[in-house]
Structure formats: structure tokens, C-alpha cells
Amino acid sequence: MSPRVAVLAGGISHERDVSRRSGRRVADALREAGCEVLVLDVDAQLIPALRAEAPDVVWPVLHGAVGEDGSIRDVLELLGLPYVGTRPASCRRAWDKPVAAAVVERAGLVVPEAIALPHDLFRDLGAPAVLSAVLQRLGLPLVVKPARGGSALGVGVVREPGDLPRAVVECFAYGDTAVLQRFVAGTEVAVAVLDIDGAPRALPAVEIVADGPYDYAARYTAGAVEFFAPARLDPEAARAVAAAAERAHEALGLRHLSRMDFIVDAQGVPHFLEANVAPGMTETSLLPLGAAAAGEDVESLYRRIVDVAVAEAVGGGTPVPRHAADGAPATAGGLLTP
Question: Which residues are in the ATP-grasp domain (predicted)?
Fold first, then answer.
């Protein structure tokens, strides 16, 4: 019997449009793979619809806070519905970039030095004094990004001291904590991780080459960025970034699928940037490109992911990830050193 899958797409975050595009792509692929699919938005009708439809499994294809901070998965567990993806506590670890960085650093990965700067502290201490200390410690260039969020919203690279205050203020438009991170030169790659065969498996790294910043517009405009899948890394560096992605997936306690973002420096060392529990699935997204580079067609792959989620539920409920980060911090701030 074909599984009934409820794909959740949309929501109310800044990334609503991307989520809708991702959701349509997943829904189309699952239909091609023989699943019965309904697409639902996250609104006042969601819970009644889920109760009425009683899907075999839910796939949250939601970006931004609701999709990635664990809250929608809390609701699905409240309703007793199995779902694709990471459980709530681990979502929260991955969603907060300073927390995720602390967890994976403890697992042995290299993380660029950074400071997490809450808006209130920035205001109370005075911007000039705080930013002067940051520049003294971290130097330039710097990457400024929200502590939570995706799709490069609010992210900027600062190369001149006079540009730093504006970049931080613009970052605060997308969250109440800004991360100021030492810029690492190298090859930017994304590595999708599948966890549906008993152990995490990294797909080939996808190299990202943009004329300018790899920002929101570049990410979701066809032709604005050049991708190389697999990435143009030497074999040793390719193995290193794959192993780092699998280790980060395990350390954060993620499940079914994830995407890890890295900069690989000139020595072939991967520097962890962030983890994504709800990777983009649009026509310009990185997980589908990695799957294609591995010889996977997305229809079969997405069907396997759904089948694993259904089988886990039938087999006695949703298991806790094998390598959840026991004792991972609930919050993080200050300097994260490699």
C-alpha cells in the first residue's frame, strides 16, 4: 500500500516562499514515487487537517524558526504523528549557531573563532567599544550573521572597519543575537548527510561559486551561482569534509537527513559553519545536487526516506538518535575557538 504523506510547506517565517518551493518539489517527487501526497500550510487549519487526513507520515519542509527550531515537531509528537527528520531537542541544538558550533567543536571539528553578541548587550555596552574589541580580537574580514536563521538572510561579509556597525544593525533585523565570525578563505561547500541505512552517509560535497556574496538572492535565483557536484577538492580533502559532516550529524543527534556547510581551506581542512535540519529542496538547492552526484534520483531517495520514517513508527515509535549529544549546552555565547 502506498504511504499517505503530508508535506508541510510555507509557514510564516522570512523563508516562506522558499519553503513553498521546496515543498512542491518534494511533493512532486513523492507522487512520482507512488506516494499519496497532500501539501499543507502551517496555519489554523493544520491540526484539524492532520487529524482528519491521518497521514502515515508527515514531512516538514519548513525553513526558518517554525521549521527548524523543533516547535512544529513538538506539535507532531503531541498529535502522535510520525514524521521525517530530526527530533525537537536536536533541532534546537542545530538551530542555534553558537550552540551547534560548541557541540561540533567538542566532537573534534574545527570551528572559526566567533563571538555571539545579543542586541541588548550591544546597546548597553555601546557599539563603538564592543566593535573595537571585536576588531582587535578577530580582525578583518569578518562574517556577520544571525545566531538563528537560514537562507543567508541577514548575513554579510565585512572587509572595512566602517562597514561593521551597519552590518551588525542589519543582522539584528533577523534576530536578537548576531554572530561575528572570523572569515575563513577557501572553498565553500555543502555536504548533505543521509541517515536511513543504519549509519550517517555523506553525499558528495557541492562546491558553491558565486560572483558576489552567496546571499538570499543568489541562492534562489537560477543561474546566479555556479555549482560543482562533486566539489573540486582533492581526494583527501573530500574524505575529510565527508567525515566532518557525518561527525557533526552524529554529534548534534540529527536524524534521516541534514546538510552541513563548510569552508575548506588551502590545506584541505574543513571549517564548520552551520548545520541545517531542513535543507532546501528547490531546483537550486544543494541536497538534490549532492544526491545527483551520488547517482541517486530524488524520487527513489525521498521514497526511501519516507519508508524509513514509517517503518520506525510501526516498529515501536520514533527512536532517539543513536549519537545524540548528551549534555549539550542549551545556550552558548562568547568566544568559540578552534
Answer: 101-307
pLDDT higher than 70, residue 222:
no
The angle subtended at Cα 63 by Cα 71 and Cα 98, nearest 5°, is 75
Give the other-Cβ count within 10 Å of 123's Cβ.
11
Torsion angle in degrees (nearest 10) through CA of 291, 294, 299, 301: -80
State pLDDT tens for residues 236-264: 999 999 999 999 999 999 999 999 999 99
Q: How far is CA 170 from the centre of its chain?
A: 21
**Residue 24 CB partners (closer than 8 Å, separation 6+):** 9, 39
Which pLDDT band holds residue 325 (cuts at 50, 70, 90)?
very low
- C-alpha to C-alpha distances, 30 to 2, 4, 72, 306, nearest whole angstrom: 10, 10, 21, 9
Rg (CA), the chain: 19
Residue entry with cell 484539524? 48
Give the model confidence (pLDDT) of 102-120 as tens digits: 999 999 999 999 999 999 9
pLDDT digits (tens, 9 = 90+) for 125-176: 999 999 999 999 999 999 999 998 766 678 889 999 999 999 999 999 988 9
Residue 161 DSSP code: G
Helical H segments across 147-253, by residue range: 164-172, 216-219, 235-251
Rounded to the nearest 10°, the torsion over CA 103, 109, 114, 115 is 10
Q: Do 275 and 100 form a contact (C-beta atoms < 8 A)?
A: yes
CA-nearest of 175, 191, 195 to 122 is 175
Residues 6+ apart with CB under 8 A from 162: none
Enter the C-alpha cell of residue 119: 542586541
Do 179 and 115 form a contact (C-beta atoms < 8 A)? yes
Please tell me what DSSP assigns to residue 83.
Answer: B
- How much is the pTM? 0.88
Helices (H), 54-207: 65-68, 71-78, 88-95, 97-106, 119-125, 127-138, 164-172
